[in-house]
Write a structure and sequence with these properties.
There is one protein chain. By secondary structure, the chain is of the alpha/beta class. The protein has a domain of about 160 residues: Rossmann fold (3-Layer(aba) Sandwich), CATH 3.40.50.1820. It is about 35% helix and about 15% strand. Helix 2 links the parallel strand 3 and strand 4. Helix 3 packs across helix 6 and helix 4 packs across helix 6.
Length: about 230
């Protein structure tokens, strides 16, 4: 997970959606050069979400040298949130994309999808734009990909929110205006998770709005990184 980071650059740890690869977010590095270094977080293994978050937090704490950011999309945002809780009051900022408030997890739809298999699971994930057409059309490719997708959805389905102290740093929420998985009302309870009101950002597009509009995320990351306390970097 960790890698060499240029002096003076805070890290932005990136967490992917169910079945996704956080390495894809590292492609945004050019847009953020000179501000932050993007680090893809790959869970050690797909086990219970509590254990995954414990292990990731331990690894980040072991390598962190200054202020940092956490960015996650969908399942990745939920994991990033739980990791933020475990890392405590260190200078940071959380950017949650495509994710309802943690207290609303798991949503009924997530529980339903977690119980699907085969073509039914493929079609459910494809409905939100999370499955490339060539995979939807190829059962052999699905055999390789679906086990990880199913395991990720089951992690969400098993999640149980626990009230805790509000995070002592800011949260930015980024969502697509046409996302069928996240309604505006679903974001209200994020306000209980930090000491200041979360920043709201909206982009054209659906659940995977950033595929066409990566700047919707990179602009938020840039502003958050530039606001970190320089004297601690």
């Amino acid at each position: 997970m960790a890698r060499a980071v240029p002096s003076g650059w805070p890290r932005t740890y990136c967490f992917a959606h169910a079945g996704g690869r956080a390495q894809a977010f590292v492609g945004w590095q050019e847009a953020l050069a000179g501000v932050t270094a993007l680090v893809a977080v790959v869970p050690p293994e797909r086990i219970g979400i509590e254990t995954v978050c414990d292990q990731i937090a331990e690894r980040i704490a072991a390598h962190r040298t200054g202020p940092f950011l956490l960015f996650g999309h969908s399942l990745g945002a939920l994991i990033a949130f739980e990791v933020a809780r475990r890392l405590g009051d260190r200078p940071a900022h959380l950017i949650a994309s495509g994710c309802v408030a943690p207290a609303l997890h798991p949503t009924p739809r997530m529980v339903e999808v977690a119980g699907l298999d085969g073509q039914s699971l493929t079609e459910a994930v494809a409905l939100y734009g999370g499955m490339r057409p060539e995979i939807v059309a190829d059962p052999e490719l699905q055999e390789f990909i679906l086990p990880d997708v199913r395991a990720d959805f089951r992690m969400v389905a098993e999640y149980r929110y626990r009230p805790a102290a509000a995070l002592p740093f800011g949260i930015s929420l980024v969502n697509g205006v046409d996302d069928p998985m996240v309604r505006r009302d679903d974001l209200a309870d994020w306000s209980r998770e930090c000491v200041v009101e979360p920043e709201m950002h909206w982009s054209e597009g659906g659940h995977f709005y950033f595929e066409q509009h990566p700047e919707a995320v990179t602009d938020v990351i840039r502003r958050a990184a530039e606001a970190l306390p320089v004297e601690l970097i």
